[in-house]
Amino acid sequence: MRILVNGAWRETAAADLESALREMGWSESPVATALNGEFVAVAARRGAPLADGDRLEVLAPMQGG
Amino acid sequence: MLALYDTELRSRLLLGTSRYPSPAVLTEAVKSSRAEIVTVSLRRESSGERAGQAFWSIIRALDVRVLPNTAGCHSVKEAVTTAHMAREVFGTPWIKLEVIGEDDTLQPDVFALLEAARMLVSEGFEVFPYTTEDLVVADRLLAAGCKVLMPWGAPIGSGRGLNNRFGLKALRAHFPTVPLIIDAGLGVPSHAAEAMELGFDAVLINTAVAEAADPPRMAAAFAQAVEAGHAARLAGPMEPRDMAAPSTPVIGKAFLG
Fold first, then answer.
1. Which of B19, B30, B38, B44 best tests the A interface by mutation, with the highest count of A CBs <10 A?
2. Residue B69 and residue A61: Cβ atoms within 8 Å?
């Protein structure tokens, strides 16, 4: 299936959000996630289903004012 | 001591972490400022880039508190979701709540701000709302459970100083015991000193330090200005007069005409 990750389409076969993050190299990173605009906490990533066309935001610490 | 949500702080200068020429300069500027709170944000990161992790390591090594922001959010939904994400990543209930309503001035949308503040307070967040000097909005934010307010000095990044001195003085006078932090728009240390002389509890500076030719030196200058302004406020500044008043006593002056 194709999902939109941080604005770019990606192919994934991951069954859930936790697997998708691992597949994309984020499993050890301090990131927060939102699926289709809804926050998904770390504890809820396993078992959070992904569907074709989903929008995933993966945010990391950045400089801010 | 400055108390923000039961956290006591010695420094009255908060520093933003954006726009520095390099991570090393950022580190030196934070040290020079003696700030105990720095603001941070969340942004998209491409996998494998690790910029976020590198930045977070730098901040953690500085041993300062972080105040995550919701910069760039234009709706209640965006701001509330960003706050949830920030709480998880940064491990703090503090959130500098920004909901932008107008892109030229980056003026806060105070209606959305209030709605988002209510939601976040009910969920246990300790909200630092970026607001205007509007007294009614301030009153509503406090009623919603905010215990700190962050009124703007001038539009973000403008460096103009205190745009509405009268309005800010009125805000200070109306809420004498609420911690008020001037956020945004200060350009030089004299602006920070002026804010502190008016009785504000602290200032947040970013662009004015980050875009200085020598950010660590400017950070130190702001720290001194904040301390001087706060000391002056405690000392009780004189009221300005319209006419001259000789400072040297007139009595006893020799007649030499």
1. B44
2. no
Q: Which residue of A has its CA nearest to B88?
A: A32
Q: Are strands B37-44 and A55-63 parallel, antiparallel or unpaired?
A: antiparallel
Q: What is the pTM of this model?
A: 0.93
What DSSP state is assigned to residue B124?
T
Q: How many residues does chain B have?
A: 257
Query: CB within 8 A of B140, min separation 6: which ones?
Result: B114
ipTM value greater than 0.90: yes
Nearest chain A residue (CA) to B207: A65
Give A34's contacts in chain B (Cβ within 8 Å). Answer: 81, 85
What would the two tokens of residue B12 be?
Answer: 């009255």
Residue B224 — pLDDT band, cuts 50, 70, 90?
Answer: very high
Q: Which of A63, A30, A60, A31 is nearest to B23 (CA)?
A: A63
Q: What is the mean pLDDT of chain B?
A: 96
Give the model confidence (pLDDT) of A14-63 as tens digits.
989 999 999 998 888 899 999 999 999 999 999 999 999 999 999 999 99
Residues of A with CB under 8 A from a CB of B: 6-7, 24-26, 29-34, 37-39, 41-42, 57-65
